[in-house]
Structures are given as C-alpha cells and as structure tokens.
Amino acid sequence: MDALLLARWQFAATTVYHFFFVPLTLGLVWLVAFFETKYVTTGDESWKRMTKFWGKLFLINFAMGLVTGIVQEFQFGMNWSEYSRFVGDIFGAPLAIEALLAFFLESTFLGIWIFGWDKLSKKLHCAAIWVVAVGSNLSALWILIANSFMQVPKGFSIQNGKAIMNDFVAIITNQHVWWQFPHVITSALATAAFFVMGISAWHMLRKSHSDFFNRSFKVGAVIALVATSLVALIGHGQAQYMIKVQPMKMAAAEALWKSENPAGLALFSIFDEEKKQDIFTVRIPRALSFLAYNRFEGEVKGINELQAQMETKHGPGDYVPSVFLSFWTFRTMVGVGFAMIGIAALSLLLAMRNKLASNKLVLWGLFASLLLPYIANSTGWIFTELGRQPWIVWEVLKTSSAVSPNVTAGMVLFSLVTFTLLYGSLMLVDIWLLTKTAKAGPIEENLEHN
Amino acid sequence: MDLNTLWFLLIGVLFAGFFVLEGFDYGVGMLLPFLGKDDTERRIIINTIGPVWDGNEVWLLTAGGAMFAAFPAWYASLFSAFYIPLVAFLLGLILRGVGLEFRSKDKSPKWRNLWDWLIAFGSFLPALLIGVVFANLVRGLPFNSRAIFAGGVLDLVSPFALLGGLCSLTLFLTQGALFLSLKTEAEIRTRAIRFATIIRYLAFALLIVLYATFPVSSENRILSQVLRVLTLVTFAAPGWLMRKERMGWSFALSSLTLVLFVVTVFQAIFPNVLISSLGENFNLTIHTASSSPYTLTIMSFVALIFVPLVLVYQGWTYWIFRKRITRNSNIIY
Fold first, then answer.
1. In-domain check, residue B101
2. Average pLDDT per consecutive 10 residues, chain A (450 residues; last block may be shorter)
3. Min CA distance, A320 vs chain B (Å)?
4. With an 8 Å Cβ cutoff, are A66 and B97 in contact?
5. Is the full-model pTM beyond 0.90?
6. Shortest distance, CA B14 to any CA of chain A (angstroms)
7. For chain B, how many structural domains are there in total?
8. Among A64, A93, A99, whose Cβ lies nearest the Cβ of B98?
9. Which of helix, strand or coil describes residue A405?
10. What DSSP letter does each residue of B223-280 carry, written as one string?
11. Is residue B245 part of a domain?
12. B167 lies in which domain range?
C-alpha cells in the first residue's frame, strides 16, 4: 500500500472513531442542561440526581471525543501537508476560530461545571453547563464550515497555485453548511435520546430505580421523536441541494448509471461497478424525481453523463466515487434513520400509556436500538466524504495531490498501527466504564466519591 | 507593525500561554506517582489541575490552529516534518487526557495505579517533545526549496534537540512542583518544595548549556543576549524566594522564565518561521509562509475580540478554584 492509501485509511479510521463520541457529546449536553435547569427551577432533588447520573456518562464520553479531536487537528499538517498548503488560507481560519471561540469556552466551563458544584450558586453552576452546550455546538458549526468548503467551495480564487480567501461571508454563509449543521445537530440529539432511552430500558428490565428511569425515558422519547423527524426532513432538503451542487455524489448514492427522466428510486440493487451496469435492481418508478424536485418528473443525471462532463471540464480521469460504498452507506443511513423514527414514535406511545415496564421484548429492543444512531452517524459521514472522491476539495483539488510528499508509507503505517492499537484498547476501556457507570445507576450524593 | 508580524507575535503569545499553563499541568502529571504516596494524596494532586487542565490544553490547539490559519506553509512543513515525534506527542496527550478523566471512576487500586503511571508517561512525552521541536526550530532542519522536509527521523533528535527537550522537561517539572506547593498542604507541599529545589539546579544547568549553543539572531544580537540573560535571571531568582517560602512569587517567576524562553526562541528565528539547514534562501519567513492579507485581517479581528475574553474567563476559573486542596476538601476526581 502507498502512503496516500494509508493516509486515507488513517483519516477514515480516526474520523469515524472520533465521531462515535462527538454526537453523544453534542446531544447529551442539552439534556443534562435541561435536567439541571429543572432542578434549579423546581428545587426537586430527583432532577439533580438525573443531572449527575447522565452528566457522569456525558463526561466519560466527552473525554474520548476530546482527546481524539486533537489528532484530527494535527493530522491535516502531518499527513496532508500539500492540502494544508493549498487551502490553508481558507481552511485554517475556521479551525483557529473553532479553537478560540468554541474549544476554550466548552473546556473551561466544563471544568467549572465538574468541580464547581459546591463553589458556585445553583444558578451560576447551571449556567456553566449551558455555556458548555453552546460552546460544543459552536465547535461543530465551525468544523462543518471548514468541511463545507471541501464539499462546495465558495468565496475563494486560485492565485499562484493556492486557494485564497476573498469572501469570508460567502464561506460562512455557504448553503452547504446550513443544511449540514442542522442535520448533524439534530442527529446528535437523536443519538443522545436513544442513548437515554436504551439505558433507561435496560434499568426498567431490572426494575431498578423505576421512577428515575421512567422519567428519563419519557424525556428521551419526546426528544427522539422530534429529533429523528427533523433529521429526516432536513436530510431531504439536503439531498435536493446535493443533486444541484454534487450531482455525481447523488448518482453514486442511487447507482444511477444513465440519466433518467423521470428517474426511479432504487430500493435494492446489485450491479457491476466495472461495466457500469445493473444486474438486478428494484426501483420505485418516478420516486427519485419526486424526491429531487417534489414532482413526478424531472431529469436526474446519471454517472456516465456526469463522468463525461467532468472529463470535458477537468481532463481525462476517473471521477466516479465508489458506487458500491456510496449506494450502501447512503441506504443504511436512510434506512436506519427511518427505523429510528418508527421506534421513537412507538416508544413515546407506550411510555405515555405506561405500558413499557410490562413489555420485556420491547425493552430489550430499545436497549439494542442504542446502537442505531451510531450506525447512521458513521455511514452518513462515510457517504459524505467518500462521495466527494476523487476530490478533496470538490472540483478544485484531488485527494491524490494532497498528501504529504515527505511522509513515507512506513511512517503512515507506524502511526496507523499506533492509533489503531491505542483507539482499540481505549474503546474497550470506555465501553467497560460506561457500562459499569450506567449499570450502577443513580447513586446517592454522599456515597458518590470514595 | 504589519499583520504578519502581529500574527507571529500572537502565535508566540499562544505558545507562551501553553508553556506556562500546560507547563505546570504536565509537571503535575509527571510528579503524580512520585509525590502522591497514597490514593488520597494522588487524588489531591490530580484535583489541583482537575478544573483547569482541559482549558489549558486549548492553548496548544489554538496555537496550532493559528499557525494553520496565519502561516499555512509553516504549519504544513513543520507538522509533516515532525511526523513521528508528533505521533508520540499525540499518544501522550490522549493517554493523559483519558487518564485524568477515567482514573477515579473505578475504585480498584490496580486500575488507579495503572492510570497514574499512564498520566505520568502521557505528560512526560509532550513535555520532552515540545522542547525537541523548539530547539530544532532555532537550529534549522533540512528543508528543500519547496520547504518540504528532506531529512529523516534521526535529524530530529540531534544532541542539541535532545538538550532542548530536557530543558522543557525540567522547566515543566519545576513549574509543576511550584504549582503543587501553592495548591496543596502538609506532606505533599513539603515534598513538592524539596523536589523543586533540586530539579531547579538541573534545569538551570541545562538551560545555560542550551543557551550557550543557541544560534544568535542575525536581526538583533543585543536583544538576543538580553533575553537570554533575563530568562536565566528570572529562573535563578526563586532560589532566594524559595528559602523564604515565598512560593507565589517563585511560581510567578518560573512562569516568567517559561514566557521568556518562548520569546527567546521566537526572537531567535524572526523574521523566519522555518530555518532550512540547506541554505538561507530556502527559509520560510513571516511573509513567504503567510496567508493573504485578507485572511490575516479577518483573523486579527477575531483574535482581538476573543483572546481578551478567554483571558478573562480563564482567569475567573483560577479565582473560583483558588483554594488549596486538602484531605478535608470535597475531592471530585
């Protein structure tokens, strides 16, 4: 394997791993803030226990997201120095702003929150977690502004072989980010909601702390239904936007070889990627046109035509991302997303009628669905980033021209192995600790630390 | 002063903040298994930095981000050149960060002991490696005409670079021990002061050797020498203050030493950001490595608004957690 391929593997592995933890951080912080606000406004100690219990799980998860995030910032310079040189004028700014505006805020106030229980007034302490919530979500915004430049580059010109920023406002008002950011934030809330429901369901099975987990479950179920519905709605708008700005990505997601009008939506497809042919496919007629344009006709461009267009524009080359991966990651994300809406609706219905506790099968199912958002989050990102290939900056710079020239395959392999071993063992430790803490349930205040 | 110089200074400020703040964080981390004789003592030590270490680490992230934004070529060349050391650096930061968070979340002595050593090891790696990077920055490395690193790993660990690493290591240990003397009581405090008294001599000796072999800035030789003397004086002064147990002043002066150390390094390379040992015309300067004036202008506004704000609320954190941690404190971690 060459350095380029290894560097891509490392980026994929470390990013997917990082994003196991980030959505739960982004979402759960709002729930913890909500619980603490209820405690401060009602004075009811049971809300405080909720804040502490879910807060503790939040912290274990936060630590992992934090330390794996540092790798991301360093990696651009280490593995992708040509990329950094080329886009630094634009890409560095949102990263620096993210650190200055968001990281400082979230990490400083998180320290205050963890250690400040008996040092601050109740209200001030509660305010700290709200600042953490705003800070962490702001950091998501800035990193997505950076990512959106790679997807749909705006506000720049090429000078002396480098991308130079000429319109900062265009970069931060890039339509891409304003679809992507709400999509990520609502997915994060859904992740947190399923996390809370899953762990509450597990405790309901054991009939431990019934009142505590019933209440947690209800909050989780409401948020789950609202968040998953929003994710789908926003995702729909995002896909319509994608057809306009990254038609190749959508064609790959649908394994649509030839342009069609009206275009059908593939439910299932087996195809020969080399020959660009379907072998067996089930399509709903006209449905893709409808999803794309909200009417039952309209042309959706296919891979062959788009490839020809790209060749005219950028010279000979292969401009088709992996259709197999695009097709199946997209389907997995959407499929799991819809399943989550169904599960959230069912959960809320059962919880409202207080029929949950008696239904063991449903509770086990809910515990297992804790994994669903993780599948959807990961496949969603794999699709977004793979579907952009062969470009690292869409139609501006190819991934193959972005890798560090002085870094050898052996060096990347060394770091890939180091991070894989480290991340692998930390994952085991993290899951063990989360399970232990979740199992222990809410612990009385005076017993907590000894 | 043009924006390029301003950003060079600002990155210097960010690294200075990192040296002062993470200096004691790493120092405390390394001293943890040695100065804490039982579990409670170790928890006291961790809790001295507990509320602040995470915010302190952002100084490094911001310095890195600012390099990327203001001098992309510097960031790209430096980070790809220091590939293997940076893997080790990251390994350290990860082990340490996770360790501080996880360590007290289980009661098993084996678990806690393991994490204590990993925290120490994870603090040791960046404390050593940052000095290696800084020494190489001053001495220069084989960068070719495109500012791409043309050397190997062994070029990064010359005796001079290792000397730089030992300097940052011992300076951070001093800083950590002095910090502990301010934040703890009784036995831990006594041990910390005793350790600081000894390690200071070693740090001082290393620093003198390092400075004696430092190349002198061609821009301003007098300033170079003045900065070196000032660094050494501020570091030597606490000897007298420590005998009088004026630990607050000792810590302040040790912090000043770290600031002056960063200033000395930055002054030594200015107006270059990257020195090539293959020829002066291959150097990257604050002008050839920088972003466009437009980007620098925008980033300047952002920095001028948010850096003071960060200083205010981080300062406030230190005020909230100003009390010493004792066996009777409510120990969180």
1. yes
2. 90 94 96 95 92 93 91 93 94 94 94 93 95 96 96 93 93 95 97 95 87 90 96 93 93 90 86 84 85 86 92 93 94 95 93 83 92 96 94 92 91 94 94 90 57
3. 29
4. yes
5. yes
6. 11
7. 1
8. A64
9. coil
10. HHHHHHHHHHHHHHTHHHHHHTT-HHHHHHHHHHHHHHHHHHHHHHHTTEEE-BTT-G
11. no
12. 3-215+270-320
